[in-house]
Amino acid sequence: MKHKIVEVKNVLRTQDMFANLQSRSDITPGIGLIHGASGFGKTTTVTYMVNQLTSMGNLPAFVRCCATDTPSSFLARVMKELGCEPIFPLRKSVDFIINTMNEQQISLFVDEADHIIGQSKTMETIRDIYDATELPVVLIGMEEIARRISHRKQLFNRISEWIEFMPADNEDVSMFATELLEIDVTVGEDLLDYIRQRSGGEVRRTLIALEKIERFALSNELDFVDKAVWGDGQLFLNHSRRQV
Ligand SMILES: Nc1ncnc2c1ncn2[C@@H]1O[C@H](COP(=O)(O)OP(=O)(O)OP(=O)(O)O)[C@@H](O)[C@H]1O
Ligand SMILES: [Mg+2]
């Protein structure tokens, strides 16, 4: 399988959403929210967009929260992304972050925000940073984050753009097959549809299935694989018969 990002609908929607945040008027707040199920491509998409922005001369900061994060470790992570060690007391780190973001017009992306959504102090610090910079801040998390953030009224009211990552549809699955398979093999529409159904549109599981098909085609020297050719082989974990 090739290592490249396929610009499926969720990727295009994310790019549009961020463009809206950047071009918003003064009266529209600038916090964005991206949520969706595990394996739908949120981290991949945001990392891809952050790299694109960087190559265009923007300076986005991307941090990924951990289960063990505290306000202090969260700020240390942001400081590190800005190329610095934390400064104590932490208020000084917050001031540094605000000044640096303002000076260099840095947008902040916070992945795995589920881990910090329950921490008032960290969430209020994010709001402080946003209020003092009014630069785009994008929170990324699983389905639950949208519900949980709605309880934090002050932050919730500042969200002007949000997208839910949707399951891959047939067109998306077909794009993954066309753009990611290393060898010249066509996957039949019935097999692509089967993959979409069985994966629930999850990109991670879709790519695992496509890689199995690629290996199968390679070892059997096939240039076309549909459901009939694939037979009853195992494509998904809970479907154990033939292993390829
Ligand atoms: N647009 C894409 N093009 C190519 N590969 C993709 C794309 N989107 C996702 N993937 C692949 O699918 C897998 C899952 O994606 P990713 O980790 O971004 O999902 P996620 O929504 O962040 O999941 P989680 O909630 O578990 O963190 C990754 O291995 C990634 O390489
Ligand atoms: Mg992720």
Automatic annotation (TrEMBL):
Pfam families: AAA_22
Keyword entries, A-Z: ATP-binding, Nucleotide-binding
Organism in which the protein naturally occurs: Shewanella fidelis
Record-linked InterPro entries: AAA+_ATPase, AAA_22, ExeA_AAA_ATPase_DNA-bind, P-loop_NTPase
Residues annotated as domain AAA+ ATPase: 28-160
Protein name: ATP-binding protein
Gene Ontology molecular-function annotations: ATP binding; ATP hydrolysis activity
Gene3D superfamilies according to UniProt: P-loop containing nucleotide triphosphate hydrolases
